Known about the structure:
CATH class: Mainly Alpha
Shape: globular
Oligomer: single chain
Domain HTH tetR-type: 9-69
Helix content: over 70%
GO molecular function: DNA binding
Distance between the termini: 66 Å
Pfam families: TetR_N
Number of helices: 10
CATH superfamily: Tetracycline Repressor, domain 2
Strand content: under 5%
Number of strands: 0
Keywords: DNA-binding, Transcription, Transcription regulation
CATH architecture: Orthogonal Bundle
Number of domains: 1
Largest sheet: none
Radius of gyration: 19 Å
CATH topology: Tetracycline Repressor, domain 2
DNA-binding region: 32-51
Amino acid sequence: MKTKKGEKDKLRVAILDSAIRYFKENGSGASGISGIMNHAGLTTGALYSHFSSKDELFGETICRELEKLEFQLSQTFKKEKKNALKVMIETYFEEERLVEVGDGCVYTALGSDMHRSQASYRARYEKYTEKVFQLFADCIQLQFPKESAEACYEKAMVLYSGMVGAMTMARTTKNLKVAHAILAAEKKHLIQSFVAKEK
Length: 199
């Protein structure tokens, strides 16, 4: 019996939601189709009703996650205005984002796997990354209106790359005290360097 379109769309979303967590926790290379689908509570065969391969599933999963990231950042920017940059930095370095890998930063968890993706997907990732950089640049521009757009974008690249790098380093150690120290130091540095001081 054929699945209705609405039900099929919901099932696709459920697979994507489950897969991103599984990929983040295990990496693409160590994630087999059976493991991915078992994690979603579905049979292996169900995958092929939505995706042609694990590579396609990975690519679509990453694109969806980056789209969600862009939306979340844009909503923070609209809501917080001049305070948005500080909120974004503080939110990124929250405790649960360190210990709950499945809910954490996609770049930190899967950056190297994204690099090994098919060229067509990498091009899509890069477009989303540019949008993320631009959102941070807009936040910086709002605080420092005399800065050029180019200067703000350059600072945004440095800022977000620093956030991702610090989280990556923190996750390499099993010593939580050291991990927390890395994140605290980077958060303090980024806020001091990129957030306008209140007058």
